[in-house]
Each structure stands twice: as structure tokens, then as C-alpha cells.
Amino acid sequence: MLETKDLTIRFGGHVAVNGVSCAFAPGTLTAIVGPNGAGKTTYFNLISGQLKASAGTVSLDGQLLSGLSPSARTHAGLGRAFQLTNLFPNLTVLENVRLAVQATREGEHRRGLNLWSIWSDHKALTERADQILADVALKSREHATVASLPHGDQRKLEVALLMALEPKVFMFDEPTAGMNAAEAPVILDLIRKLKQDKSKTILLVEHKMDVVRELADRIIVLHNGTLVADGEPAKVIASPVVQEAYLGIAKEAAA
């Protein structure tokens, strides 16, 4: 269970996230929506540790994450796609994913004791990396250097690295942004597959309401840094506060 309690951050006199308390259970996909500047990405940054909270806490399965670095939170089980944009641009796609797989696994590659077992272990890591690349439709680009990839393929590689880390919590911040109509379905299909694993928690910041309606089990709405709605998608989308704050429909027009 991922939980934030009274999570708050202030920039001078501006409160960007204001006392947000939420619990996210395994087996659910929660969409976080709201107008531009609502605090969605800032909330993500507080959870993953890119920003230090002014007040409040973040915990995962009872472990307090507040005060931990982003990398320590990753080791604890938080996985955020954008954290993985610091790729190795001169290595191949396969090498990048294999390194991510290697980082999560014990084996002879960590000890260097026996050449045969090291080779065997290396083979297993490569096979797992190959499997992930096939899942994200990048198998044909496995020997290409990361620097040569177009934007859409780089986004797919981010998701591949996230999958390789096998986190408890997947955090996607507009995962299809910048992708064309042919590329976006690959990422959405991956998220659908991840949803089938009921041990995983998925958080999704997304502006495309058709995607939210299809994928979300729950929607929370942020407005001016405050949690203003939380619940089942159809009810949240239909609520007056969301119609006005998020969809831009005036109360008079909705009446």
C-alpha cells in the first residue's frame, strides 16, 4: 500500500500541493487528473523524492519513505518512468535494458567467481531483456544506440527500463506524450498488461479522458494543489466540481 499523509509543498507563499492524503492499493490503477498547474506532476515529484515535502509523509507497505533519496525510494519499490531518462546514450537498447535487469538480480555477475556461471547468468539476463524489448515492440531496435532512437522509441525504452526494475508501484506521467497515433497503443497495451498483475499499484497522470475512462479503476482530481474529488471514474467525471475545475464547464452551463 502506497500512502501519502498531509503531503504539502510550498514555494515561497505559493502552496503547490496542499495537504494531500491518499492511499493507493495494489491491484488498482488510479488516474490523477486536473487542469494545468493543478499540482499533478509536483505530487508525483513528492512521492518519488525529486522534491522535498514541506510537510507530510510518504510510505510504502508501512516503510516511511520521507527523507529517502529518489534512488533509495526506487530500491524500496517505487518506479517512475521519467526517472529513467538518464539513459546511456552510447550503449545499445539491449545493453540499457540488460543493465536495468542486472541491477535487480542476484547472480554470479555480482561476484565474478566462475567464468561458466558468469556466462550462464549473463545469458539469463539477456534473455529477460530480450523478452521485455519484445513486449515494448523494440526488439528490432535492440542493437541500435539509444542516441539514435526517435522520441517515440525513447518513451518505449523508458517503460522497458521501468518494467526491468520490477517495482511494486508504477508511476506514469503522461506516458504517450509526444507519440504519434501508431506508437501510443503500444504503451497503453503495456499498461493494460501491467493491470493484470494484482500485486502492482499503478498511478497515471493523463490528460486524455478517453484513456482515463478506459484504464482507470479510480480517479483523483487535484485543483490548485488540493484534492477535490476521489472515487469511481464515472461519478468523478460527472461531479460538478470536476466539470467546472477540470473540464472547464461553468456551473450555469452544467445546470
Automatic annotation (TrEMBL):
Gene3D superfamilies cross-referenced by the UniProt entry: P-loop containing nucleotide triphosphate hydrolases
Sorted UniProt keywords: ATP-binding, Cell membrane, Membrane, Nucleotide-binding, Transport
InterPro entries tied to this protein: AAA+_ATPase, ABC_AA/LPS_Transport, ABC_transporter-like_ATP-bd, P-loop_NTPase
PROSITE patterns found in the cross-reference section: ABC_TRANSPORTER_2
One of the record's GO molecular function terms: ATP hydrolysis activity
4Fe-4S keyword on record: no
GO CC annotations on file: plasma membrane
Keyword Transport (UniProt): yes
Pfam family of the protein (one): ABC_tran
Protein's name according to its UniProt entry: ABC transporter ATP-binding protein
Organism: Variovorax beijingensis
